[in-house]
Amino acid sequence: MRAFTSITSMAAPLPLKDVDTDMIIPAQHLTSISREGFGAHLFERLRTTMPSLFINQARYSDAQIVIADANFGCGSSREHAVWALLGAGIRVVIAPSFADIFASNSSKNGLLLVTLEPNVSADLLREATESNLSMTVDLDSQSVMTSDGRSWSFAYDPFRKHCLLRGLDDMDYLRAHLAMISAKKAELEPYSFFRVGTPNR
Amino acid sequence: MKRNIIEKILDAHVIRKDEAAGDVGILTIDFMLLHEVTSSQAFSLLKERGIPLFDRTRLAATLDHSIPTAKNRLTIVDDAARLQVAALRKNCKEFGVTLFDFDSGYQGIVHVIGPELGLTQPGMTIVCGDSHTSTHGAFGALAFGIGTSEVGHVMATGALLQATPKTMKVAFEGTFQPGVTPKDAILKLIAQIGISGANGHIIEYCGSAVRSMSMEERMTICNMSIECGARAGLIAPDEVTFAFLKGRPYAPSDSRWDEALSFWRGLVSDEGASYDQEITIDVTELTPMVTWGINPEQAMSVHGTVPVVDSLPATHRTVARQALSYTGLAEGAEIRGLKVEWAFIGSCTNGRIEDLRAAAEVLRGRRVHPDVTLYVVPGSEQVMTQAEREGLRAIFEEAGAQFRMPGCSMCLGMNDDKVPAGKRCISTSNRNFIGRQGAGSITHLASPITVAASAVAGCIVPWEDF
Predict the structure, then answer these.
(1) What is the pLDDT of residue A1?
(2) By the CB < 8 Å criterion, does B461 face chain A?
(3) How many other C-beta atoms lie within 10 A of the C-beta of residue B142?
(4) What is the chain A residue with the closest CA to B248?
(5) Which one, of B117, B22, B276, lies nearest residue A195 by Cα?
(6) Which of A97, B68, B153, B242 is the most buried (most CB within 10 A)?
(7) Whether B268 contacts chain A with CB within 8 A
């Protein structure tokens, strides 16, 4: 996993609530068997229906931070949504809240989700729309700081932070605990009633 | 300490030994379903890193999302889809994973075949790279959707990392009126608590209405848990659950059946167990529901009028305006009588035999409106065979509907079955997101009964109009 420490970038606004994963990457692109190439289709349907979409505006072309409204990433479990954002150069999404599976997928790929109070998030969203808003998002200090010096802190799970700062993925952690997992599985064995491939009847 | 069923299943499966991991624990997974869309990159990861499968007898795969549902489905025209299907077949062969392929008699939508095969059992932890994995919760299993990285983790270690969820109790009480179904009840819940109302929670559904539901109906309820943000939703098992499971291929062997029953009977919430949130909905007053907007919370009674934007909470107005602009509806207008060009009966939400029976009951001796194309897509080969045996296929075809081969079909616009741009579809599926059924398509979610009735009428109608 790609580590995340700190990013300074212009912030792009996405003034929508309940941005779903079909909006982020339409299902028609999910037939790919690679993790690459989804960035070109990020927010594809919004590009045509929403002329003001940040992707349609040259001034946001280098933005690595997106600010959106509540419940970002709802809907399907497709990790392709996270790959599409990262593929388009986005490293941070700021919103008042995120959907669960999307948040989980983000933490596995080095996409930092920053949850800010709804009023703070709304103010920043407005600023990013109306003017050029540049900010630094720093994971170690768990802070967002605008270029004119205003700052806010955000909560982040300590274990997830540890992993993200170092680029450690869950696979290594889980594999290091395989003995413990096997012991747990043995304890659960009396409650298991099938083996796939060998039907009971 | 009194515990609810969610806490009981979690306690049995979570390993908590690492202080450094804080709230995040290792959750052991009993069973994982795989399909072509979200497994390929996970298999690739294992290959790249030379990691073997933890236990292939805890995995089962099928084809559902990107496949055609035409009769001659063996030829997949789309290059990427054909490669994706080939990749799953190759990976399953290479890793020794059981694949329920075309014409095995068991191919179908992951969430339809797991229960049919008896693979979905009470007390288990079940995952799949698909958000509607919550469907399996109908059997008292803790089942939820995961991303592809996590699919890889479960392949390699039989476990994944999970933070402790909150719990929510949703009681459906009362008795359904004729023509009103569990699909209407779950749409009502989503409309009431909102698309993010259960974020961070796992739901336990209970109440007298749930107890009197069949397993198919319970699956419809649990299926849509994710549409209000809950990663999982489950129902404590009872005699209805056990009767459904008995005799299925992977249900406990006869020699272990009593042992299984005594374990399963203990999977109930303790009297007085607490939850982070509790909600009760009386279904007695419920009328058929239909969505009017671009997400499942934008649902209303089929007898009602489209909301006036300014009457909605301020936080909902932007999305409501966006929705009305996309769906072409007017504020305050009746939804009844709205013309539809397409109708879809199928999906992991409503593609089971009981759904087809309910739709066939409406369509028997009637004709689909000449301006409407109706797809009836069984959720699995078993459902298809059963529907043929019961004469349902003949009813659908005589009514002018297309009875197709099993798969996800028109639910998500990633195979050949798409609603054309600008066309309106009434659908038994689970999401009405912008372009969900195909770029530019407009979706109205409803029950199989309402969809069948509307397909005949050529416009959205309640079942009583017949």
Answers:
(1) 87
(2) no
(3) 28
(4) A201
(5) B117
(6) B153
(7) no
Report domain extents, chain B: 5-277, 289-465
Tokens read off for B351: 């593609």
Q: Do domains B5-277 and B289-465 have the same CATH topology?
A: yes
Q: Rounded to an integer, what is the distance from CA B308 to the centroid of its chain?
A: 30
Residues of chain B contacting A121 with CB distance shorter than 8 Å: none
* CA-based nearest residue in chain A for residue B148: A79
> CA B256: distance to chain centroid?
30
Q: Is A175's Cβ below 8 Å from some Cβ in B?
A: yes
d(CA B287, CA B179): 8
Interface list for A 59-118 with B (CB within 8 A): 69-71, 74-80, 82, 97, 99-101, 104-105, 108-109
Cα separation of A185 and B188, whole Å? 39
Query: B436 to chain A, minimum CA–CA distance in Å?
Result: 7
Q: Residues with Cβ < 8 Å from A53, sequence gap 6 or more?
A: A14, A43, A46, A47
pLDDT of B72-118, one tens digit each? Answer: 999 999 999 999 999 999 999 999 999 999 999 999 999 999 999 99
pLDDT tens digits along A38-82: 999 999 999 988 999 999 999 999 999 999 999 999 999 999 999
As a whole number of angstroms, the distance between CA A30 and CA B130 comes to 12
CA distance B304 to B324: 16
Candidates 3.30.499.10, 3.40.50.11930, 2.40.440.10, 2.60.40.10; CATH matching B289-465: 3.30.499.10
- Domain B5-277 bears CATH identifier 3.30.499.10: yes
**Residue type (1 letter), B290:** V
Task: Work out how many CB contacts closer than 8 A connect A with B.
Answer: 238
**Chain B CA closest to residue A46:** B434
Which chain A residues have a beta carbon less than 8 Å from that of B199? 71, 97, 99-100
Of all residues in chain B, the one with the smallest CA distance to A106 is B147
CA angle, B132 as apex, B130 and B137 as ends, to 5°? 120
pLDDT exceeds 80 at position B21:
no
Tell me: pLDDT of B19 over 80: no
Predicted-assembly ipTM surpassing the 0.90 threshold? yes
Residue B94's nearest CA partner among B61, B117, B67 is B61
CA distance B202 to chain A (A): 11
Residue with tokens 């290059």: B79
Chain B CB within 8 Å of residue A26 CB: yes
Q: Does domain A6-168 have CATH number 3.40.50.1820?
A: no
